[in-house]
Write a structure and sequence with these properties.
The chain is of the alpha+beta class and 144 residues long. It is 29% helix and 33% strand. The chain is built from 5 helices and 7 strands. The protein has a 5-stranded antiparallel sheet. A hairpin with a 2-residue loop joins strand 4 and strand 5. The two termini are 28 Å apart. About 6% of the residues have low confidence.
C-alpha cells in the first residue's frame, strides 16, 4: 500500500516503481522509470529528501522524514541502501496517512501468486520486522 521507488545510487535515476508510486505521483509507473530523483516533493521538502538519501548512503538506512509532496499530500519518506551485483541502489518508501492502493491487493490473486513463486519474497514493516514470507523465502533462510 506504500509507494516505493528503486533508485540507482550512482545516477540517481528511478530504476523501478510500484503501482502505488504511480498513483501517488499521478503518473503511469512506466513514466516514473528513468526520471531523476528526487521529484514530486515541494521545494521546502526537497532538501529533507536529499538528506535522507545521503544518510541512507552513508549508514545503510535513513529513518522516516516528514515531507510535503508537490500535490499537497503529507508523507513520511524512508530510504535504505543496498548492493546488488556491482551496483548500489536506494529503496525509497513514501508512506501517507491513507493507503495509496487499497487493502484488497493483500487478498488478491497477486498474494497467492507470490506465495507460489519460485523466488523468495518477504514483506516487512517500517522497522524491518517480517510480516509475511513465502515458502521460497523460508526454504532459502532454512526456516520451518
Amino acid at each position: 500500500s506504500e509507494a516505493v521507488l528503486l533508485v540507482d545510487a550512482s545516477t540517481m535515476q528511478v530504476v523501478d516503481a510500484n503501482a502505488a508510486a504511480g498513483e501517488l505521483f499521478g503518473e503511469p509507473t512506466q513514466r516514473l522509470v528513468g526520471r531523476a530523483f528526487p521529484f514530486g516533493v515541494s521545494p521546502t521538502s526537497h532538501r529533507d529528501v536529499e538528506d535522507a538519501v545521503a544518510t541512507a548512503r552513508a549508514s545503510g538506512r535513513a529513518g522516516d522524514v516528514r515531507v510535503l509532496l508537490a500535490s499537497g499530500i503529507e508523507a513520511r519518506v524512508a530510504a535504505s541502501c543496498f548492493r546488488q551485483d556491482a551496483a548500489t541502489f536506494l529503496l525509497v518508501r513514501y508512506a501517507t496517512q491513507a493507503p495509496v492502493v487499497g487493502a484488497a491487493v493483500a487478498a488478491s490473486p497477486v498474494a497467492e501468486l507470490l506465495e507460489r513463486a519460485p523466488d523468495a519474497f518477504v514483506v516487512t514493516d517500517a522497522d524491518g520486522i517480517i510480516q509475511s514470507a513465502n515458502r521460497a523465502f523460508l526454504d532459502l533462510a532454512q526456516l520451518a
